[in-house]
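User: Is it possible to get a 3D structure for a protein together with its bound compound? The compound here is glutamine. I've pasted both below.
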Amino acid sequence: MHQMTLAEIARGLADKKFSSEELTKVLLARITQLDPQLNSFISLTEELALEQAKAADARRANGESGALLGAPIAHKDLFCTQGIRTSCGSKMLDNFKAPYDATVVAKLAAAGAVTLGKTNMDEFAMGSANESSWYGAVKNPWNLEHVPGGSSGGSAAAVAARLLPAATATDTGGSIRQPAAFTNLTGVKPTYGRVSRWGMIAYASSLDQGGPLARTAEDCAILLQGMAGFDQNDSTSIDEPVPDYSASLNTSLQGLRIGVPKEYFSAGLDPRIAELIQNSIQELQKLGAVIKEISLPNMQHAIPAYYVIAPAEASSNLSRFDGVRFGHRCENPENLIDLYKRSRGEGFGPEVQRRIMVGAYALSAGYYDAYYLKAQKIRRLVKNDFMAAFNEVDIILGPTTPNPAWKLGAKNSDPVAAYLEDVYTITANLAGLPGLSMPAGFVDGLPVGVQLLAPYFQEGRLLNVAHQYQLNTDWHTRTPTGF
Ligand code: GLN
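Assistant: Yes, that's possible. Here is the predicted structure of the complex:
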């Protein structure tokens, strides 16, 4: 039962092969049995899950239908869930029970999805390895000595290990696509403004975007359908109709123009990954796509720009966790300054403290023009590169990451080494564009992802290309041994 995709579950529920309650019980037992190896969940919500499953079964019995009605999912632990701990992977929020549901959570619940729990993540979504969580590192089901990627590593590991079919995640600089690549999943980072950020604890507000992690493009289409849409509570949400993502999955790729940036294949890319990317290009050519070399000349500046902008926004967003309004409070403070200092010093881990310091520095008088303003100018150049490229091509294709998942602890002593691994993903966040990662093969038994980028609001196109690729390849069907 645990091998089923969301699409298969929807068919099984519609055909009354099993109930949502039965399926939910099987998966909850599986999580209890196997998750100690992975640490992919921070909280399990068994009671809520069974209640939601029974309600979904009752709705189906009353003639209702829908791809998410009775479908088990989990939420990354930065989506606020009413009355349930929403920790953001931090000691700072270990005792925080959100007073309301995030829009994404409310929309999926209304569609009948069943919440099994809240998944582990890098603290405040800062990281690429899921090692900065206060609740401990998450392990990669493909090799328990390796990281699952981050910051949505809990969602990725849980779905890859077949603990559940799909989960929500967020992507500020790659946190959906990179863990998807590291665990053999499909993940979509939507256009900025497509999915509401209301009730999603902020890391860098101009970059953050929620999206689905699942095994197939078909399932991502189903989950994204439930997440996307205008929300008046989010001032950056865009009032644009949501297309039927499942309906366009089977559009032909004949004549599709795919751009491959020459900068993607320079030093730093593992040659074995480069070869797998070439294979995926050939596969898409067989399906009728036309390949064109393009250039993204400002790509080399994207990492330094991102690692100024994201910490700058984080330093501002995280100022609310002061032990007074929100967050952990230290014992017996001597005075107000002592309260702030110790509460924040105890509540935030080292990576979060590093980012707050970098961000506050970049925003301070005298440095603002040199760092923050310059980074914003680079951001515009990165966006202009994409706009020029999309005049010539429909989709941009390349690797999701330069290397496969590294060993736990391998990059702990050098944060910059981890930052450099984000080279292919962060440009989409800087430009606000949608991106998708899908399985493209293995290197040393570890999964490799291929990334597709599209013009604004063309998530449907990304899902269509990925679905056609998945109809003709079987990488996405491989299961990690032991799970
Ligand atoms: N690795 C990037 C960072 O640490 C991206 C994280 C994310 O997308 N949330 O900022």
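The chain has a mean pLDDT of 97. The first strand starts at residue 41 and ends at 44.
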